[in-house]
Structures are given as C-alpha cells and as structure tokens.
Design a protein that fits this description.
Chain lengths: 350, 148
Amino acid sequence: MRETLDQSLRRQGVSRRAFLKYCTALASLMALPPGMAPAIAAALGKAMRPSVIWLSFQECTGCTESLTRSNAPTLEDLIFNSISLDYHETLQAASGTAAEAAREQAMKAFYGKYLLIVDGSVATGLQGAYSTVAGVTNLDELKKVAAGAAAVVAVGSCSSFGGLPMAHPNPTGAVAVSDIITDKPVINVPGCPPIPVVITGVLAHFLTYGTLPETDLHRRPKMFYGETIHDRCYRRPFYDQGKFAHTFDDEGARNGWCLYELGCKGPITYNSCATLKWNEGTSFPIESGHGCLGCSEPKFWDKGSFYQPLSGGTWTDSGTLLAAAAAGVAVGAGAAVLSRARQHHAQEEK
Amino acid sequence: MSRLDEIPVRIMPAESAAGQGQALLHELAHMLDVLLREGRSGMIDLRALPLAAADFARLRAVLGEGEVHARIDAMGEASIVETGIPGIWWHTYRSHDGDIITEMLETTWCPDILNSQPEDVTSGLQRLREQLTGDAAPSIPAKEEQHA
C-alpha cells in the first residue's frame, strides 16, 4: 500500500513547519487565501501519492521544459513527494520495452485512478499514422491509456486546442485531446508553453481535493484563466489614460506605456502571466516590452499578424472588442479607434 | 553565471501609475483595525497582485522594518519580519534555489508559522527520549575506563 504524503515527508525528515510553508505557496498558486494553508496541509497530508502517466504526441517538448523550470513547488518536490510519475518519455531513465512495461504496470495497478497528462496534439490523418511511438499511433495510445484514467490534463496549446500542428492547412489532421476523449473529465492548461506554476497548480489542486478545478468555456481552470492579461496588466492604467507606444523604439515604448497599438492581445487573452510571471517570477512578455501573443487562446496561430492591433484584426468580432473597450475608460476606447484609423491610413498609403 | 539577476542587463521599470501600493496600505490599515477590535488576523498575497516595482518600493518605504526579524530554514529559507507598523508582518518564502515563491503581508499578533508545530514537538520529544536512553548506556563504560 502506498504511504500518505504525511508519512512520506516524516520519513524524509521534513518538518511540519516546512510543510506548512510549502502549503502556503500552494495556496498562493491555486489562488486561494494564504490562510487556507493549514487546511490544505491537512487534506494533502492524508493523500496517497497518485500515479501519473504523461504522454507526448505532436509537440516540441516546450511544455516539459516549462514544467522542469517550475520553482514552486519544484518538480523534484512534485515527483518525489506528491505524485508518482510512472511514465514520461523525456524524463524517465528507462527506455524501449522496459519503459512501455512500466506504463502497462502502472495502468494495471491503478486502473481508474491514475492521472493522465498529455502534451501535443493528436494526429488523426491516415488513421493517425503521422505520429507513432513504438509502432502505435498516438490516437490509439491516447484512447487506450485514457480509458483507465481518473482524469486527463491537456498541457499546452497543442493538446488543449490543436496548436501549431493544427495550423492551416493542418496536414496531419491534428486535433485536441478533448476532441477524442469525451467520456472522461478533461482539463485544458493552454499556453505555448503554459506557465510552469499553472501546470503544477492544477496538479496541486488534484492532489489536495482529488478533483480537477472549476473550468471555463474552453475547459481552462478559472483560477488561472479567469481574467485577461489586460485586466491584471501593470500597464493597464496607461491604456485607460490613452498613453500608447506606437513603435518599439518611441518615447511611449521607453516610458513603458500600453502596447495595444503594437498588437498586444492582452485584452482578449485569458491567462495569469501578469501576476504569476515567468522565470521565477522575474517578468512577463509585456514587462519586457513586447505585446502578448495570445498563446493560450484557441487558434491564436491562424489569426493574423502578432503586430496587428486588435481593433483592426481578425482576432475577435466587433461585439467582443466593444465590450473590452468598454471595460476601459473613454480615452482608451478612443485610442483603439484612432489606432484602427491609423491602420487604414497606412493601408491606403501602400 | 547561473541566476537571472547575475545577467548584466537591466529592464527599465515602467513608471508606476497603478497606485496599488497606496490602496494596499489602506487595506492594511483596515485589517489592523479588525485585529485590534475583533482579534481577527488577515493576509494579503502580494504575488497574486499586479504590483509594479514602484508599488513594492512604496510599501517598503511606508511600512519599514520593526523590531523582530525571524529566519526559518525549512525547504528553503523564509524570512518573517515585523514591519515598522507593529502587527503587520512581511513574509518572504524562498525555494532551495533562493527564488521567492511566496510573499505576503499578514496582520496578526504573531505569525503562526513561528510557533512550534505539535507534530514536530511530538517527534522532537521522541528523539530527545531516545537520546537520553542512548546517553545512559555509554556512561557505564566510561566509569569502567576510570577504574582501568
């Protein structure tokens, strides 16, 4: 019988105070009040280490790279203290038949209870023959492994929405995991890649409560994708004041003004970059002077130039854009119209 | 060079127009009032807010540092400092690598994490008793050595 996390930590000499500190970080990750840490510690301490199987399909390994750079909790903490990562092609030491046997064993031992994580989209063209592992198509492997899973976590925009492999003309017939698996709870953690602590935050929620967190229309956890980048952006006051950078080297750019006119997709992109940030909380793209690409939104790859302002682009219908503009003040909305006018003017000059 | 802050490039921070620091100070004043009147503690997760560097600077400038500086070595270092406004504590939790994983402001008489935890006291007592039992045994050969 597997030991509880409490037992595991005590055996490793980890103090209760250290565990409380860890749970405080988890509460922060899960957007829960920090005061919840003792309750999380109580629930998490009694949890058995769940078996996790990670499958990689049509992907670039960027999502795994992202996760292994996670600092809170560290992947080591996650693997050795909280989960039992029984199969991950990139990280596991075993290879070939030994690796496949380990997966089969975990599936058999924890059938109906293990957590399945998938990164990469699923090729369906030619009956899935565009992408195979050990002679088995990703399509067949997904169906087989998902059948015994308690829940499925689609990590990254490729497994969540099809991603770059699905970009026009989608030669492999790539689809999202949720297009194939319809009889299991599937949660999407999109992003190209997702923020590492968002990945671990979802896992932490599963460990603490034994369920997947509440999701939005696109199956994304609301606790991380509940607000737009724009809502939480520290440059938002400049949008409200109508202060915009017009080029990447003008006075507005140097002053750190809003990047809306340079194509920032923050107003319609739901993610936590503005608060959780990247590189151990150092910064996020907008803080580094580049607009948001909208990588956690479906089909962001086929929606035109990254540098085209939303007001003149194909990203959204006019109703959504008006709603976004209305969320700001009149100055900001007026600037959006001005931006569109400028864009028309530029097109006429061509 | 292994850490980001060792790379000799500085990103010029945007001027703070957010004023979040000032809003937080008002919230802290309210929380302190609640602590005094009702004895209820409160916490603000600073990492969950879109704070600019200037907001942090404003908070640090107004709150300052007080009389108590505590350091915890547990799965990475944590510092818990009572600010210059008694009852407001600044928590900074770091990972093994020294990166900040959580930063909070707490209004309380004394942060709970500074208290010894019952589970740790129980295992500590057990270790102490084992030590005492273990100490008793070597004392006998020591006497024999004296006679020899």
